[in-house]
Request: fold
Amino acid sequence: MKKDKAGCDGKTCLLCRLSIKEWSPAVALHRKNFILNKGEMLFKEGDKVTGIYFIYEGRMKVHKHWGAEKELIVRFAQKGDIVGHRGMGGAEHLYPVSATALEPVKVCFIEMDFFQSSLKVNHDLLYELMLFYAQELQSSEKHMRNLAHMSVKGRMANALLLLQQKFGFNKDGFIDLSLSKQDLASYIGATYETTFRILNELIEERLVAVSGKSFTILNEAKLLRLTEIV
Reply:
């Protein structure tokens, strides 16, 4: 990770957008900008919490250990999203997850003390962060429920629908996120072999299409039916 001399536009992330005008000079003084290469880790599970990050450009995966050697992807983050917030308020002050760049990424780093001071001063920021935590808690609970009660095929259908909703489609008609089959497996909580087999089934049934690391949905209605838990 190296410093980004260009910095950011000062209006992309929650902190910049929702801070009062008088607080902007303090934000500009305290933020630090960095660049990560594809595959580079921003922080890893168990690292000491030093602050939080806002993504200015690029996409990242947030993941954690699952079992002995497996990885479970908790969420994907893109421009404007916050990462590192799961380390706030923890008794041990350690990050409970890792964050890794899926492509070249630019981030803004804010030390925790200053961010907490910002929450006390900027009420709109505090309210928006509260809503974000509530939404993420609901998403995490659904994710864990799906892992326990939904078939692998249903989890894959659900994952592709969620990725479509978050990232939309690119000019070629594919979900606008390049994703390896291993990362897809980690996102749905399945082995690579099972993921490969189920994906081929969806392709044969003409529900999805795949080109390399790109995916697109051909029949959204049928995919939705696969996500129903009986």
Remarks:
- Residues 174 and 211 are 9 Å apart (CA to CA).
